[in-house]
Amino acid sequence: MTTASAPPHRLDNASTNIAEIDVEAVAQNVAAIRRHIGPGVWLCAALKANAYGFGLREIAPVVLEAGADAIAVDGVASGVALRLAGVKAPILVYPGELASAAMVGALEEHDLIGTIHDEVSLGWFTRLAARRVQAFLKVDSGLQRLGIDHTVADYTIDRILKADRLSLLGAYTHLLVRDGPREQARAVVAQFERFMTAVSTLPDHSMRMAASSRVLAAFTGMHLEAVDPGRAIYGLPWTGDTALQSELRPAFRSLSTRLLQVRAPVRIGIDEPAAVTLKGVTRIGILPMGKQDGLARLNAGYVLIRGNRAPLLGMPGLAHCRVDLTDIPEARTGDRVVVLGSDGTGEITLADVLRTHPDLDAPEIGLEIGQSVVRRYRRS
User: How many C-beta atoms lie closer than 10 Å to residue 6's C-beta?
Assistant: First the structure.
């Protein structure tokens, strides 16, 4: 009988490529959101996409301790994982997977809140629920994504209320908010009004939820009975209003590695591509960090070594990249290299990274951190 060997471990990355997550910043951000919405609003922290890439199991207890009432995740498996990790708070499962007997059974067994987003999903919930499933109805008010059409939501609400094994907690929507002039604000208001009309037949005790981070920051009248902020929890910036953002701190504290090799460039022909890339460079450094680690977009075009800027040379490879050490003669193998964060008097901020990569949206920041990078959770 052959015993399967364990997968190889990259010991260099285990001690070298590190992303530091500031959980104290997460807690402070949740507290700021609570102050903004008041004590009577159900604060459901959106931890979808593995808590925006920062770690679901690590972030969940932090947001709950800081004042969140509930957690929202993007799949039943994530909800079950939190239950097995000891989370007792309400967990809302956003829509995103086909209903099945196993899925509905998991909702029941682990006391998770499901989402009904169309007539098909309602049919599955109605047929498969063995005991009683708590659920929200999701309404499409204009985002053109998952959700029941706002024009028939009242009919669906009536059907859910009459179902023997369904308990309707309320309804929610995700409003489309774009950067731009005041016309965009009018578009948000129009979507909100559609939602309010669509859920007008909800029972008095039901919750209505329409405010994600940007909505709750800019439209205080849209807080209703519940909110589900995402990016604000992690201090990920957005354009527009600044009142709430001024109270937020970035959870992504730093991304760092170490110099793997310091060397002089190899002398090659002037017409060869590498010669053009290294023109004028007398000293280069090799970093054990590349595209698999997220460096392709998580960079500002340079790194910090001993507090000084070292420009990146060309595009990162899959597992390595080069930096220009010409102006840092004191750099040595093993030196700490800061890709994002502070080093001495120097600093590379999220804003620097976003300016360098205008196609990178702030909520994607944490998702760019490769699984090969060790995440360390620190308190400031």
Answer: 6
Q: What is the pTM of this model?
A: 0.91
Domain boundaries, the chain: 40-233, 252-378
Q: What is the C-alpha to C-alpha distance for residues 48 and 119, in angstroms, rounded to an integer? A: 24
How many other C-beta atoms lie within 10 A of the C-beta of residue 136?
27
Backbone CA torsion sign across 295, 301, 305, 306: negative
Q: Is 233 helix (H, G, I), strand (E, B) or coil?
A: helix
Give the position of tokens 């003669």.
Answer: 329
* DSSP 3-state percent helix, strand, coil across the chain (nearest 5): 35, 25, 40
Q: What span, in angstroms and rounded, lies between the C-alpha atoms of 1 and 17?
A: 37
Of 297, 360, 309, the residue nearest 338 (C-alpha): 309
CB-based burial of residue 288 (10 Å sphere; 0-12 exposed, 13-18 middle, 19+ buried)?
buried
Nearest to 319 by CA among 376, 266, 372: 372
Neighbours of 243 (CB within 10 A): 10
pLDDT in tens, 265-277: 887 777 777 766 7
List phi, psi (to 5°) of 5.
Answer: -80, 155
Ranges in the chain, pLDDT < 70: 1-15, 180-183, 275-276, 380
Cβ-contact 59, 81 below 8 angstroms:
no
Residues 44-56: tens digit of each pLDDT: 999 999 999 999 9
The CATH number of the structural domain formed by 252-378 is: 2.40.37.10
280: which 2 tokens? 């004028």
Exposure b/e, 106-130, CB count within 10 A at least 16 = b: bbbebebbbbbbbeebbebbbebbe
Query: Under CATH, domain 40-233 is a member of which superfamily?
Result: Alanine racemase (3.20.20.10)
